[in-house]
Amino acid sequence: MIPSSGYRLQPDIVYQQSHGNALDVYVPAHGQSRAVVVFFYGGSWESGRRQDYRFVAEALTARGHSVVIPDYRKYPEVVFPAFVEDAAAAVAWVHRHIAEYGGDPGRIFVAGHSAGAHIAALLALDPTYLQAQAMSPMDLRGMIGLAGPYDFLPLQTARLKAVFPGEHLQYLAQPVNVLQPPNPPVLLLVGRKDETVLPRNSESLAQHIQKAGGRVELRYFENEGHIGMALRLARPFQGDGRVVQAIGEFIDRETAF
Fold first, then answer.
1. What residues contact 184, with CB distance under 8 A and at least 6 apart?
2. Residue 37 and residue 111: Cα distance in Å, rounded?
3. Which of 106, 111, 59 is nearest to 87 (CA)?
C-alpha cells in the first residue's frame, strides 16, 4: 500500500497540447521543496503509465523533494527520437512552471529506470533535445539512472530495430555516442544481477563521461536484478534503504551550493 500522506498531488497536467501528454506533480506536504526530480519510467519504450509510479514520488517527497512523473509517447505510436523529444518538452514545462508548485527551477534533476534512464541520459548528455526547448543540459543539477541501457548496439531483436529504425538513429540513440560536454553530474545505479540490461551499459557510460572530463558516480548493488532496482524505491521493498539513500545523498550533494 503506497501512502497517500506526506505529499500533495496535482494530477493530469497537460504539458504538451499537440500530443495530449500529461504529467503529475507531487510536492512535500510539509516544508519547502529542496529539489525537483523529473522521473521517467521504463517499459522498453513501449509500455508504462505515470500513475503506476506513485511509489517513486512517495520515496522522494519523504526526503523533501518535489517529483514530476510525465507520460510520453511510446512505440508503436512513435519511434525514436519522438519519446525523447516528449521528455524534453516535459522538462521544459517543469522549468517554466514548477515555481508555481513551490519548486525551484534551478534545482531540477532528471531520473529514470531502464528505458526511462536511457531517456534521462540523452537529455543530460546530448544537448540536441533540450536546445529544441530553449534549454541546455547545464540547466539541470544532475541525472540519476537506474539500470539504464546506454550502450546497447548491436540491437538483438526485431522489436528494438522497429523502435530504433535504421543504423543512423541506432547510433544516435546510444548515450555513449552523443555525449557532448559540458554536462551535469551523473549518478548511475546498477544491480550486479541484472540480466535484462547488463551492468556493462552503466560501466561504459561512466567511462565515456570520465574521459570527457565529466563527473560521474557508479554505484553497484550486489544482489539486485533489473526490476529490483526500481522496486527498492517502494516503501515495502526498500530493504536496507541503500538505493533511496544513494539517490538522496547525490541530490543533497548537488544542491548544497
1. 124, 137, 138, 140, 141, 142, 143, 254
2. 7
3. 111
Which residue(s) pair with 112 in the sheet? 40, 145
Residue 2 has pLDDT above 80, yes or no: no
pLDDT tens track for 118-139: 999 999 999 999 999 999 999 9
Q: What is the DSSP string of 183-223?
A: ---EEEEEETT-SSS-THHHHHHHHHHHHTT--EEEEEETT
- Residue whose grid cell is 500530443: 19
* Total residue count of the chain as it appears in this document: 257
- Angstrom distances, CA of residue 253 to CA of 25, 241, 249: 23, 18, 6
For residue 122, count CB atoms less than 10 angstroms from its CB and return exposed for 0-12, middle for 13-18, buried for 19 or more. buried
pLDDT of residue 235: 85
Angstrom distances, CA of residue 6 to CA of 9, 13, 60, 95, 244? 10, 20, 10, 24, 16
Cβ proximity of 24 and 12 under 8 Å: yes
pLDDT by residue (tens digit) across 68-99?
999 999 999 999 999 999 999 999 999 999 99
One DSSP character per residue, 17-81 reads: TTTTEEEEEEEESSS----EEEEE--STTT---GGGGHHHHHHHHTTT-EEEEE----TTT--TT
| Lookup result for grid cell 558516480 | 217
